[in-house]
Amino acid sequence: MSGERPLQGSVAVVTGAAKGLGRAISELLADQGADLALAARSAGDLEAHAADLEGRFPDRRIEVLPTDVTDDEAVRRLIGTTVERLGGLDVLVNTAGVIGPIETPAQDVEVGDFRRVIEVNLVGTFLPCKHAIPHLIARGGGRIVNIAGTSGLRGYRNRVAYSSSKWAVRGLTRTLALELGPHAVTVNAVCPHVTNGARMTTIVTEKARKLGSTPEAIHKAFAAETALGRFIDDVDVAHAVGFLVSAGARNITGHEIAVDAGWDV
Known about the structure:
The longest helix is centred in the middle third of the chain and has 29 residues. By secondary structure, the protein is α/β, with parallel strands linked by helices. The chain contains eight helices and seven strands; from the N terminus they run E-H-E-H-E-H-E-H-E-H-E-H-H-H-E. About 50% of the residues lie in helices and about 15% in strands. The protein has two domains: about 210 residues, NAD(P)-binding Rossmann-like Domain (Rossmann fold); about 35 residues, no CATH class.
């Protein structure tokens, strides 16, 4: 990573920070100079990630704040504690999410499973925004980046809960961009496509099981749908987030960046 520190002196909250996208994004923000509040449900995974960041970036202030992003009071504490301990808030990145039922027709989806996906993916994005907004305004401006997905750009057969939640995250993003524009706060989304890692392995494996196929065949079919013929990596999404929170993106708001290896073309 570069020696430049464009986020030096800034404070960022990353939800879902323990693993996957959240881990890669928080690592990039730390490399760029930001002090961090790391939020996720798993305290152990957060502690391990924080220890790694502190070892690599000893001058960064890192707060570990285990949080259920669907709990209003817990999220209020997350943001309040961040501001109290780190002195303010400049950047919020919402990566917490769940995948929900896989390869399941809408009529077979349990309502509890549907509600759980909406709670985590949508409400769990809304609540950090809600509680961060007053502090971003008080700071004189800031950045919010939400993780939507290519499943929020088109319909997604047999993934009704997940697709619905990601379309809703796009609506939330655009609405907040309009509300917060007068306060110099930009709000954007990143839409990853199939991403190498444990979550995608779960999806590929379950899809193969339900279709009577093999994970290798499902992986190949997913990759073949993209212009570049491959999956993306967590770091690709992190770099898109890094751009959106940079000074170079100061006039970009209410939009989505698709990091998809050329799927939605």
